[in-house]
Design brief:
- The chain is of the alpha+beta class.
- Among the domains are: 410-463 and 523-539, Cytochrome Bc1 Complex, Chain D, domain 2 (Orthogonal Bundle); 470-517, SH3 type barrels.
- It contains 27 helices and seven strands.
- It has helices spanning 2-6, 10-23, 31-37, 43-55, 62-73, 77-90, 93-97, 105-117, 132-143, 152-156, 167-180, 183-194, 200-212, 234-243, 245-249, 252-265, 283-295, 301-309, 314-327, 332-340, 347-356, 360-374, 383-392, 410-419, 445-448, 451-459, 529-539; strands spanning 430-431, 434-435, 470-476, 481-489, 494-497, 503-506, 511-517.
- The strands form two sheets. A five-stranded antiparallel beta sheet has the order 6-5-4-3-7, with no helix packed on it. A two-stranded antiparallel sheet has the order 1-2.
- The radius of gyration is 33 Å and the shape is flat.
């Protein structure tokens, strides 16, 4: 290697440094050449020299690496990375931790990355910085990936600081308090809510973490990484919730989180003091309380079902009807009144409720509705529910695509299009410039296509493929095979886009067989019928 170090070509020197660095501690030669490489005019020579010095754990060069990071690292992230690798190999954690006092931001960032490489708990010293970028980088090092468990309590303690704005930082501090399982960190979350620090979103996150503290989810709320925690004392959670009950009930956003927590976890103690606010709450929170009372089998459910049935909100009335039977509130007349009012909401759910009643009058009414369905008199917007309930009772009714054409909720449909994890509509389609071009643009689909077309295209995509989006395999009567994208299909002419982008016109008369495929799977395998109906209702509004 000696001759390589004497060469004046920068790339030769860079490769020499790389080879020496790859040898690591097996070789101590050429140390002076590597140190000189830190000052070379070539960035690549600097890069490989810094990494090599770290790999061989050279002594007494930390100041030179810090100088390199100060002067070149801020301009070149590759140099900063190389300097960081150099620091992790040439300095112990205690020495690197002292760089938290260095005034240069780039040096601090490089030092944090260096400590992250060796998972050193001493990284906690960087949590005292005033720069939120430094704090965030330290928080990521402590919290993310395999984490640095010993420093998690220090990260949780960041919640004590006033005026922090970076939500990525705060979210990790909140989650650190959840992960430690320490009662003192549970109190930190309560204090954070009590002091009114941070945004509404972060206070909601802190409260949700408290509600899940006794039995944390196995998927990390920040990263989605699998982390299994042992069960904890839920009495500590109840005590902490009680200590901030007034703060929670004074904020509708927090109260909604609490009610949702009860709905999921079934902790009746968390409902203490909430019911007196029912009349003043917005509909979405009233619905949450009804669901929470149902989950906890509360004897007070009847009282609030009765209140809900008199609500001005159709959403609240609908949910109250759903719980009325369990609460011991007579429901038959309510259901019949709902079904008899063409403008009433929740008629589909009312059909399900009627079918579950055991009284002779209810059964008679249900069979009357079955006969109305058979004679074509059922209102279109609850045909689906009628067909489903009849099927569950062994009654066969005729039904086709028309069951899904009307009766859906456009708002729910929009949410499904944008957020459904399995269907992922927006990853292939575009709506108002949001989404992808893999499938047809849906921005004006409601004006261009009927509801029937939309239903068919979701259930049987091959049957209704828009021009330019279906792959086709054609075998002609002369045994020729043609593969491409079906760009246009008319009675007297098909246009196929071939793999090279050229267009080929084909007379349908020469086609022996053809097979069209779609990249879109049938939605019936992914979404529930009610969801498909909601999506159709939403798409029909796009005009």
């Amino acid at each position: 290697m000696s001759s390589a170090w004497k060469n004046k070509e920068p790339e030769i020197l860079a490769q020499a440094a790389k080879v020496v660095g790859d040898l690591g501690q097996r070789s101590k030669e050429f140390n002076s050449e590597l140190i000189s490489g830190l000052n070379h005019e070539s960035e690549r020579v600097k890069f490989f020299s810094a990494i090599a010095l770290g790999n061989r754990k050279s002594d007494g060069i930390s100041e030179k690496l810090v100088h390199l990071i100060e002067h070149s690292g801020s301009k070149d992230p590759y140099i900063r990375h190389a300097g960081s690798m150099g620091l992790s190999g040439t300095m112990n954690p205690g020495q690197i931790a002292k760089l938290s006092e260095n005034p240069n931001k780039t040096v601090k960032l490089a030092a944090i990355v260096a400590m992250r490489r060796v998972a050193a708990p001493e990284i906690r010293s960087f949590l005292n910085d005033s720069d939120e970028l430094i704090l965030l980088e330290a928080a990521r090092a402590i919290h993310d990936d395999k984490s640095i468990p010993e420093a998690l309590p220090d990260l949780a303690a960041v919640l004590k600081r006033k005026g922090l704005k970076n939500e990525a930082l705060i979210r990790r501090a909140i989650n650190a308090a959840l992960r430690t399982g320490s009662g003192s960190d549970l109190d930190l979350l309560a204090d954070y809510i009590r002091n009114g620090e941070g945004s509404v979103k972060m206070r909601r996150t802190a409260l949700a973490s408290m509600l899940w503290w006794a039995s944390p989810p196995v998927l990390d709320p920040v990263e989605g990484r699998y982390r299994k925690h042992s069960p904890r004392d839920k009495d500590l959670v109840n005590k902490a919730i009680e200590s901030i009950r007034e703060n929670i009930l004074a904020d509708n956003e927090l109260t909604e989180v609490l009610l949702k927590g009860v709905e999921i976890r079934g902790e009746s103690d968390w409902l203490r003091g909430t019911k007196e606010y029912f009349a003043d709450w917005p509909p979405k929170m009233q619905v949450r309380l009804l669901a929470a009372l149902d989950k906890t089998n509360s004897p007070e459910l009847k009282e609030f079902v009765i209140q809900g049935l008199d609500s001005n909100s159709s959403e609240v009335r609908e949910r109250a009807r759903a719980f009325a039977n369990k609460a011991g509130v007579p429901t038959l007349n309510l259901i019949l009144a709902t079904l008899g009012d063409p403008k009433a909401s929740g008629q589909g759910e009312a059909i399900r409720q009627l079918a579950n009643l055991e009284s002779p009058k209810a059964k008679k009414k249900f069979m009357e509705l079955v006969n109305e369905f058979k004679s074509g008199k059922t209102p279109p917007h609850w045909k689906l529910e009628m067909w489903q309930v009849a099927k569950s009772k062994g009654i066969k009714l005729k039904g086709g695509y028309e069951l899904l054409e009307t009766g859906g909720d456009p708002a729910r449909g929009k949410k499904l299009v944008m957020e459904h994890a399995a269907a992922q509509c927006i990853r292939c389609h575009k709506i108002n410039k949001v989404g992808s071009d893999l499938g047809p643009d849906l921005t004006k689909i409601g004006r261009l296509r009927s509801r029937n077309h939309l239903v068919i295209s979701m259930l049987d995509p091959v049957r209704e493929i828009s021009d330019g989006y279906g792959n086709i395999l054609i075998k002609t009567k002369d045994s020729e095979e043609i593969v491409g994208v079906l760009s246009s299909k008319k009675t007297n002419e098909w246009i196929i886009t071939l793999a090279d982008g050229s267009k080929k016109k084909i007379d349908p008369k020469i086609v022996d067989t053809s097979q069209v495929t779609s990249i879109m799977p049938p939605m019936s395998a992914i979404m529930k019928p009610e969801e498909i109906r909601d999506v159709v209702s939403y798409l029909s509004t796009l005009k």
